């Protein structure tokens, strides 16, 4: 493999890593403030305990998302210096606004994490809301920058020069809305089903059922609603892609031949060499309708595009199938939740909980698959029809080592965070403190006291004294 | 409009050096404390730095965004030739960042704290060293800018300009600066024995800083590093550094008299002087390569971009700065300790 391939792998991996943490960091604050609000309203200590627990999760995910995001903002330049040199001045606006949103989020997080008992209750709660809103805002802004790569706008490209730059038009590029909507909903679906699944597992194992049921309800309602809205946004996205990036649409659907009244393929094995798709289910005329709202519209096939402008078809097609498949599944899971609101008996059925446990990680798989569709589907362009990825890559050799370095670092980090979450849940299942409260501070001082006793360094220290 | 952007760039740089620096420095103070004091320092850092911890580091991102949006050609050189030290900086930022949060938000406190603590302490020391080394590489005059990547070895193009004694000295100098800032800050946050401990620390790191600064400039001068030569021949830069040195005496007096606010502002002012001195001699030609000096203002982004960015920065600043100030005030970052004087005595 070449330098370019490793640079792309590194970008894919680090972006894929960051997306998960960014999504969780973006959505979890909403769960936290809902629980917090319920506590303020009912003064039921279970809700306080829950918001405290989610707060810790938010802190851990936020920092992991923040550091991996900092790394990414460097990597954009480090891996693709030619891209940043030209794109930076054009898409500076979403990035500078994103910086501001991120800053607001960090300030609000400072207030929220450290403000218990120190700030007026309502203001304190409100800072939690700000965390959520600014998180979503920064997500939307970053996706807008990505939208520009798919739908470059706000400049004239004449003889290889970028002129007449209009940063506002670049920010509001034609792809920003559909992409941002799709991504935001996806973040809500994935995080909500993920969190709900974790609590469903605890209910399934009959641990602290009261708390976990409350947690499950808060999380799943966000997820179920978002999962129902997602197909609408998916349809908007598909129509948008069909219009602006027909080659991406053809790759998503693995359509080689241009045809009117094109069928929708479900599944199928792509043979890129012979340009065929076997073992697929065909739904007649459905693709033409989904893409253009007309059963007889013409869908341009891959064969009608220049060979050197085709993305890797199989990867894009499979990723798209995975995304849509999971999206549909999660929509049904959401439906089952809504039905269970009427049929309370279901809540006693272990298969009900098992379902939510099984689907828990799927939303994240769908998010990753969706990004593969967007990013791989745009290849070989880094800026659609303007700049090729191979022309943007860093001249520095040895990206192979850089890739393995990040692979190792982020794998360790990912495992650590998973392990930390496991510990959070275990501690959540333990009985509250003797005084019945679950104060962060008392928990912490209790923990620290225990650490002091157990810590080998202090032991040594004590024996010296 | 360009001046607004430049102002925000320098302002972010300054705040990153100050706030990010104090944050790194806190870890360095912890690293060089005895086992007993480490624990106390750890808790003090959490109390003092915790609320603004995340915000301290966003200045780096703001700086980065300004560079890539408004000064793309300049940023391009930095990002290509400093790939390796910046990767190491990122490693440091990642490890110390997660370690800081893990050690306070892990649900269970056990032996894993040992790892979080050491990752945080070592990361706090190594990160500013690599940041300083990167800056040292930019001003060291050893970067070889070329289009012809084949004719040079990997070491020549991507290593030698940052992996040398001058850059290392700049790195250590910045780490010492961070530790000076943090220990001066921490003095005002402690009482009794701990206060004495931080005061001792502050004196120690100040000495290290002065000695390192002296070695740095003399080494640079005798190894014919253009930056150091210009620095010595520039009366304004020299005067700033000298003035900053003289201000150490009132600083020590304020610390002794326990004027928390005065000592903080004075320390900040000294750092501003040093930073100004470092930039003044060459501004805006901040990248000194083997053959040429690259101006920050060379090949600027188009006017539309600059004015757009300036407006964004003004709006952002209008929202963020009051918020940040309110945050610092809410958690007593800006408060006079003098009130507690009697209790302490």
UniProtKB/TrEMBL annotation, chain B:
The keyword Transmembrane helix appears for this protein: yes
Membrane topology of this protein: Multi-pass membrane protein
CC terms in the record's Gene Ontology section: cytochrome complex; plasma membrane
GO biological process: one example: aerobic electron transport chain
Transmembrane region(s): 6-32, 52-71, 77-102, 122-145, 165-190, 202-223, 235-255, 267-288, 308-327
InterPro entries cross-referenced by the UniProt entry: Cyt-d_oxidase_su2 (IPR003317)
Pfam families linked: Cyt_bd_oxida_II
Family assignment from sequence similarity: Belongs to the cytochrome ubiquinol oxidase subunit 2 family.
Name assigned to this protein: Cytochrome BD ubiquinol oxidase subunit II
Species of origin: Salegentibacter mishustinae
């Amino acid at each position: 493999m070449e330098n370019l391939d490793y640079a792309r792998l590194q970008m894919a991996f680090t972006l894929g890593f960051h997306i998960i943490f960014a999504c969780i960091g973006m959505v979890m604050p909403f769960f936290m403030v809902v629980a917090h609000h319920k506590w303020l309203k009912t003064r039921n200590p279970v809700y306080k305990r829950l918001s405290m627990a989610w707060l810790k999760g938010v802190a851990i995910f936020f920092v992991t998302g923040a550091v991996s995001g900092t790394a990414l903002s460097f990597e954009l330049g480090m891996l693709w210096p030619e891209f940043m040199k030209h794109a930076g001045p054009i898409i500076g606006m979403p990035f500078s606004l994103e910086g501001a949103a991120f800053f607001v989020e960090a300030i609000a997080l400072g207030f929220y994490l450290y403000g218990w008992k120190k700030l007026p209750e309502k203001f304190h709660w409100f800072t939690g809301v700000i965390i959520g809103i600014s998180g979503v805002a920064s997500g939307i802004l970053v996706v807008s920058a990505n939208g520009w790569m798919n739908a470059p706008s706000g400049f004239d490209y004449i003889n290889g020069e970028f002129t007449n730059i209009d940063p506002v038009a670049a920010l509001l590029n034609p792809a920003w809305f559909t992409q941002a909507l799709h991504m935001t909903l996806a973040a809500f679906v994935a995080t909500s089903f993920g969190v709900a699944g974790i609590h469903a597992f605890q209910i399934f194992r009959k641990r602290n059922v009261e708390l976990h049921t409350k947690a499950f309800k808060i999380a799943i309602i966000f997820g179920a609603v978002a999962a129902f809205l997602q197909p609408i946004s998916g349809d908007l996205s598909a129509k948008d892609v069909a219009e602006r990036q027909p080659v991406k649409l053809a790759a998503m659907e693995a359509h080689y031949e241009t045809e009117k009244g094109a069928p929708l393929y479900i599944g199928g094995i792509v043979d890129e060499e012979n340009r065929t798709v076997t073992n697929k289910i065909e739904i007649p005329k459905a693709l033409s309708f989904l893409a253009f709202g007309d059963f007889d519209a013409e869908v341009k096939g891959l064969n009608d595009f220049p060979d050197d402008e085709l993305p890797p078809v199989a990867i894009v097609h499979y990723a798209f199938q995975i995304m849509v498949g999971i999206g549909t599944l999660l929509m049904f899971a959401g439906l089952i939740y809504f039905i269970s609101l009427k049929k309370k008996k279901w809540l006693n059925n272990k298969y009900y909980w098992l379902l939510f446990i099984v689907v828990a990680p799927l939303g994240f798989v769908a998010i990753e698959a969706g990004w593969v569709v967007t990013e791989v589907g745009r290849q070989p362009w880094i800026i659609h029809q303007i700049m090729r990825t191979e022309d943007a890559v860093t001249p520095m050799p040895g990206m192979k080592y850089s890739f393995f370095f990040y692979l190792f670092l982020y794998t360790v980090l990912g495992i650590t965070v998973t392990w930390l979450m496991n510990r959070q849940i275990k501690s959540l299942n333990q009985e509250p403190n003797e005084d019945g409260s679950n104060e962060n501070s008392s928990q912490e001082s209790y923990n620290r006291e225990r650490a002091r006793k157990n810590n080998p360094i202090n032991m040594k220290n004590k024996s010296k004294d | 409009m360009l001046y607004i952007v430049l102002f925000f760039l320098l302002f972010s740089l300054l705040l990153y050096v100050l706030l990010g620096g104090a944050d790194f420095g806190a870890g360095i103070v912890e690293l060089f404390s005895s086992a007993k004091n480490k624990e106390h320092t750890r808790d003090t850092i959490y109390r003092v730095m915790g609320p603004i911890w995340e915000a301290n580091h966003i200045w780096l991102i703001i700086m980065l965004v300004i560079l890539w949006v408004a000064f793309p050609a300049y940023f391009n050189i930095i990002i290509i030739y400093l790939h390796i030290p910046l990767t190491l900086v990122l490693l440091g930022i990642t490890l110390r960042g997660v370690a800081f949060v893990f050690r306070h938000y892990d649900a269970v406190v056990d032996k894993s704290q040992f790892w979080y603590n050491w990752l945080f302490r070592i990361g706090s020391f190594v990160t500013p060293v690599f940041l300083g080394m990167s800056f040292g590489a930019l001003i060291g005059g050893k970067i070889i800018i070329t289009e012809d990547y084949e004719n040079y070895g990997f070491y020549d193009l991507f290593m030698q300009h940052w992996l040398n004694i001058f850059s290392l000295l700049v790195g250590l100098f910045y780490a010492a600066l961070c530790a000076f800032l943090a220990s001066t800050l921490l003095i005002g946050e402690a009482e009794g024995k701990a206060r004495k401990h931080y005061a001792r620390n502050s004196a120690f790191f100040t000495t290290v800083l002065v000695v390192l600064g002296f070695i740095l400039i003399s080494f640079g001068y005798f190894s014919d590093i253009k930056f150091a030569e210009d620095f010595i021949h520039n009366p304004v830069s020299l005067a700033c550094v000298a003035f900053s040195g003289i201000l150490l005496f009132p600083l020590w007096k304020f610390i002794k008299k326990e004027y928390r606010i005065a000592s903080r502002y004075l320390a900040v002012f000294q750092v501003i002087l040093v930073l100004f001195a470092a930039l003044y001699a060459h501004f805006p030609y901040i990248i000194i390569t083997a053959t040429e000096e690259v101006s920050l203002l060379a090949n600027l982004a188009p006017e539309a971009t600059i004015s757009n960015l300036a407006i964004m920065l003004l709006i952002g600043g209008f929202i963020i700065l009051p918020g940040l100030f309110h945050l610092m005030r809410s958690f007593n970052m800006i408060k006079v300790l003098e009130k507690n004087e009697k209790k302490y005595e």
